[in-house]
Amino acid sequence: MIAWFDDFHPPDFARAGIRAPRTVIIPVGPVMQHHSDPPETMPHNEEPQLRKLGLTTRMNRGVPTLDVPHKICEQGKKLTPEQSQLLKLLGHKTVEFKIRLLGRWEKETGSVIMEPATEEEELPVHESDDGDEDDGEDASD
User: Fold this and answer.
1) CATH number of the domain where residue 42 is located
2) Is residue 124 in some structural domain?
3) What is the C-alpha separation between 104 and 114, in angstroms, rounded?
């Protein structure tokens, strides 16, 4: 069972606030969704959402199209909510989902065995840009 948890790490979509593991650039031409193989063009009804998220698209025969390349994210920089939503809409899975086993029940003894943490398994800490936690309140109040 422990081996299953160690081997289970499917690709997943990056969340806002983490550092981008790689740079993602959308090329000129029809905007493609990478949810299937081969990729498909983005449906026309998604075009307003793409614009709202920062893409400068235009419709070409019912297909959202880019006239210039668009960099969604840059490796090492924090993802904004808009960037993470774009990555998800376009099907770019840039991180791995992992389950860290903290404890397990042992049938023979009926006890719970806690698993030791290793340095590489430490949970990531989200850093704020200015060192202060954002409590959602405006400083001018």
Assistant:
1) 3.90.105.20
2) no
3) 7
What is the reported pLDDT for 118? 64
**Does residue 45 sit in helix, strand or coil?**
helix
Angle made by CA atoms 98, 104, 108, in degrees to the nearest 5: 150
pLDDT of 59-108, one tens digit each?
Answer: 999 999 999 999 999 999 999 999 999 999 998 888 888 888 788 888 88
What are the start-end ranges of the H helices in 1-134?
2-7, 47-52, 81-90
Domain limits for position 33:
2-96
Total domains, the chain: 1
Give the Å distances, CA to CA, from 31 to 6, 11, 67, 71.
36, 22, 10, 13
